[in-house]
Amino acid sequence: MSKIKNIGILTSGGDSPGMNCAIRSAVRTALFNKINIFGIYRGYSGLLANEIKPLTASSVGNIIQRGGTILQSSRCPEFFEAKSRKMAKEIMDLNKLDGLIVIGGDGSFNGAHLFNIESGIPVIGIPGTIDNDISNTEYTIGFDTALSTAIEAVDKIRDTASSHARTFIIEVMGRNSSGIATHVGVCTGAENIVLPGVETDYDQIVSDINRGISRGKNSSILIVAEGTVPGRSYEIQKNLKEKYNLKAHLCILGHIQRGGSPSPIDRFRASVMGNMAVKALIEGKTSHATIYKDGQIALTELTNCLEKKNDAKPEILDLAKTLSI
Ligand code: ADP
pLDDT digits over 85-109, tens only? Predict the structure, then answer.
């Protein structure tokens, strides 16, 4: 018989489409197994503020198709401090919560790991971020929907770019991770992809554009990963104009990539992960995360997922280059 009686669940960091599917799945799995489950609102901030309410089967009805997170999310600087995490443990005790599910990115996982070590409360992480930048999992919830949104947008820009024979710089999200930029670049036939941490080779960009023009191409798309600070592509636009007299139009896709109805892949995998997270707590797992690896959804130790992964794979950049000659 499981010792777990009351589970808390929260979403933390940047929201992503499919988080609601994971919440719904965890809630229904807990209730199916006669375990109470409580929504902790606004991530770790809501935990510290005791914003905790019981969830019922109907409170997660009709959310499977909705982007965002019904539990809301936040960034909570206080949670970096041990004294705040101690307070979080007291609030968990006050509410008799004996297990925690954290849906978020690598930052949220790091907070969850420290909280588990210091409090002894079992914690299961579910990877939820559009960036797909958590180590040891090939996939995070929301990545697939974000790709669809970005690809649809770039396709639309390509229509107008080719009607007017224009070059476009399109900045996609992902902070320091390259997953969205490389996938969007390959899937939209971008002429160039600029990644964080890789020096921008302007001579190469301009020669690629000119090569395309000389074989009759009438549009060029340059995909730029935002890097730490969004707006990086303004500098690229300025350099192309000032140093090469090349006029490029600019479009920053921004937060549109974080919203929208989750794709079938995000819905399905989030549903499996939510279910697996609750079962892990029932089975007595104390510090684990759900991951997607080699075509399977599985559990691993949370400590395997605390690093950001570097997916700036040269072979994908080479593929994009080869296909856009
Ligand atoms: P994500 O989870 O999407 O990577 P962040 O990196 O912003 O997003 O992290 C979300 C929240 O997780 C932070 O605001 C903070 O409350 C908590 N967090 C992140 N890193 C740590 C850490 N090293 N120690 C404790 N809490 C952390």
Answer: 999 999 999 999 999 999 999 999 9
Mean pLDDT computed over every residue of the chain: 94
Tokens of 208: 């690629």
Q: Which of 45, 106, 108 to mutate to test the pocket of ligand 1 (most atoms within 8 A of CB)?
A: 108
| Residue 203 known to be catalytic | no
pLDDT attached to residue 316: 86
CB 168 within 8 A of CB 155: no
Closest to 189 measured CA to CA, from 164, 208, 173: 208
Strands 36-40 and 52-54: antiparallel
pTM of the model: 0.96
Side chain identity at 78, as an amino acid letter? E
- Structure confidence by residue, pLDDT tens digits, 221-259: 999 999 867 778 999 999 999 999 999 999 999 999 999
What count of residues does the chain have? Answer: 325
Cα 40 to averaged position of ligand 1 atoms, centre (Å): 16
Which whole-number Å values give the CA distances from 75 to 15, 31, 44, 104, in the listed order?
Answer: 11, 29, 8, 11
Looking at 15, 106, 131, 133, which residue is catalytic? Answer: 131
Task: Give me the sign of the Cα torsion angle 310, 314, 318, 324.
Answer: positive
Q: From ligand 1's centre to the CA of 298, what distance in Å?
A: 23
